[in-house]
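Exercise 7. Predict the structure of Laccase from Vitis rotundifolia.
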Amino acid sequence: MKEYIKSSKRIEGVVFRTREEAFIPSKMWLIMKVFLLQILAFLVFGGGIHCQASTRRLTFVVREASYTRLCSPKNILTVNGQFPGPTIYAIKGETIIVDVYNKGKENITIHWHGVTMPRYPWTDGPEYITQCPIQPGSKFTQKIILSTEEGTLWWHAHSDWTRATVHGAIIIYPKNGTKYPFHKPDTEVPIILGEWWKNDVNAVRDEGLATGGDPDPSDALLINGQPGDLYPCSKSGTNTFKLTVDHGKTYLLRIINAALHEALFFSIAKHKMTVVGTDGSYTKPLTRDYITIFPGQTYDVLLEANQRPDHYYMAAITYSVAPKYQDFYDNTTTTAIVQYSGYYTPSSPPSLPHLPAYNDTNASVQVMAGLRSLADAEHPCNVPSSTSTNLIYTVSVNSYPCVNNSCAGANGTRFSSSINNISFQTPTVDILQAYYYNISGVYGDKFPSDPPLVFDFTADYLPLIYQLPSSGTEVRVLEYNSTVEIVFQGTNVLAATHHPMHLHGYSFYVVGWGFGNFDGNRDPLRYNLVDPPFQNTISVPSKGWVAIRFEASNPGVWFLHCHVERHVTWGMETAFIVKNGKRLEARMLPPPSDMPPC
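Solution. The predicted structure, encoded as tokens:
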């Protein structure tokens, strides 16, 4: 039967920006005399840096709301009752004030993923790293300080597993008088990929911790909060996201992987996609049939509506390896519908795109292999040509022994994970506060530059002794303006899998990657120091390595962790402390007056 699809530029779930009066905190903490110069720096430099562009004020109310998916209702934690949460629209260089009210039953923090927050780590968000959590019934006023970012980023909860439902997009437009480095699209659409559990997500987490095994996989994958036609109770129009397009027009899809655990292959049937940006930075155009997007990453892709008017599925499936022990993954397919406007008889069901096999590692790196920065006059590439600090960080899935082999991990053990064989222990006072106020006993500053043992990290069979990590709350101190290279080396200690590593406070240049063990003599000769991509989250390939470079010019405490949530829970995390520079404008700003108490 023919139907008429009306063209529409309205996108459900999008909250459009409104400008409000600028806001600058009027009270600061009274602190010791040694910090008077820093207060002076805030008064003299802080306002000028933060308010060059307009400053707006938004309200985030964290509260429970009931949503029905997969035939059953469930209370979930949301922001402003929305799932996914509200989209924040901004202009490059803008500062936004967000009043976060916690009206839920659990502690919460909010992180602005990919925003470097120059000199101001206080409202970056990771729990017990830069702040203690916002307790139920409390409020915390957070600044989002945008600087060089342009494109698509996102925000999410950064405590427990609440980011499964507490997340949303951040869209940063070019400054007035500038424009996109590609043809302006006709319409822009956020595409947020996620996961859904029938049970409470933190209960799933707690059960995994209690048994020592892998937590239960999600029951569905999501596109813009909806599972799509292929799931139970999801065939009605309200349970599948639909994007109406006009033939001949171009659409900018701002794709975000907000999933807790799953890397995803994403494609649109019979349509190619052209990648033009990632992680808040533009790239040279890269056209592909599909993309692989790892947890925490964003991609800006152009979709040309150039096919015969019909209905077409966009779809995402999990990319998963680690067959030995971690074979728990969501093997379902989420779909949304691209529907052309006009009169026609749509195909039923719509065409599904061709996607790689779930464990196709070679397919998973195709986009990463082709990404290049613009590296032009308007978007220069400032990759350090040499480095003063060289670090090699192994990222591993490990295990701890259990009494009588009674746990649900590999061979009766308890799963853990590590960086350089140290499984991170979360403190009870945040590291930033301990650093700033010189509180001893919270963390150590001796995180190793290299792995404690050097062996064939990616061998098929490794001695069991390598599975046991040490534990501690260790960080690495970096000198201001030092040039840093980190080689992330994947291992096959317990299970070879991918690790999307995310660094707070910085974006970095991805100068090299490969399979196998990193060779410090040969592999740097193949680095791309001309136009490497500029990202904040990069996935270490299964049985492979990635090299990144950045200049440590943002003083503060900055979290480094895998963005697979169970790996973070198990301890694959650490932090950098970047020292102050000598000039006032190179020093960390003092804290706001309403930091949540520990």
